[in-house]
């Protein structure tokens, strides 16, 4: 089998390099071992809109990494514009944050078409293409337009929202039509697949029976593949990380105090403001917890050139300083706020040092931090995961303490409850969660998707609009 995996962001695989997103970090170990060619953006742009795509290819595990310089004229409209200022907010049910122009949409389509041309170089008769995430909704249709007949699969790492929200994205009908060029579309949860089904039924009037869309564009299977992690490998790296200087310095600095940890990209979908408000409320409601527990919040800067992200950065920084001003003392800082990224190896050790992991997004496709926090715990004295019921991970990790991130009082109570949870209950919850993590590993996710793509009906020769 020849496999070509495509994602906007790729990873190169140094355990201690900061990783800004779940997707690239999650894919790295499985892509490395699969012998696939992984194609993505080099992070550089080049002039000349009509330029021929040139990939810089290097070895990655048993396969290769192919990095593309994207066209300078379209990069901002594609990445900052349509992908991250129209699709991302809509997919996370934040239509109020949509800022987009027709030029951005045009650039998005141009970049999809450019990447499709670049992929031809890697095509062999039995190649499977597996396209990742919302940056490339129309890439399959572009490949078909170039005559590609191989199987093409797509996996959406984010949620797919209610129909009314998708309706607020300009050109959404063209995009979902283009998505029907895929033979298989994978979602994180059943809700996402059902929302997508409702959207295409209403928008395109197509038939969906037994999870297969039948339209004049051919057949597309819609299925659910919740992404996982290699829990045992993560557990081993957490145990090993105890000797990492950052981890031992953190532990020494605690003087018996308990620690809660949050690790997120600085993104409005992650619910950081609500989380900090919940800690503020908790210290006010339970003064005994002052000096007894602090929050380590790592917020990795992300998409900084986009206004909504800049605004959030200022808002979170202001809020942290208010809360620290209100509850802090000369020798105690309630919230240790780090506006930077850490490598996975160190993070594993930091998770293991915290008695509570707080993962409270307003909406999230899966959220692998939740899974990593659990896997990093010591089986003899595990910490407690407080998890938003709006993260895809909540479907599997229902033995965590589930919270509504809009209910600040409720979150404050639940965090306090997590801190006081007796050892036998912590162990029982940990065992249940670990069993689930082992059952849905990243290797299984990868294998299930590929198997399902291979089994999908042969691509038909179809014309996809617009
Ligand atoms: C999310 C998206 C990924 C993206 C990551 C980091 O996890 O689903 O596609 O790569 O965020 O975002 P960035 O814009 O830095 O690639």
UniProtKB/TrEMBL annotation:
CDD domains: GT20_TPS
InterPro entries: Glyco_trans_20 (IPR001830)
Entries under SUPFAM superfamilies matching the protein: UDP-Glycosyltransferase/glycogen phosphorylase (SSF53756)
Protein family membership: Belongs to the glycosyltransferase 20 family.
Protein name as annotated: Trehalose-6-phosphate synthase
Source species of the chain: Bradyrhizobium aeschynomenes
Lineage: Bacteria, Pseudomonadati, Pseudomonadota, Alphaproteobacteria, Hyphomicrobiales
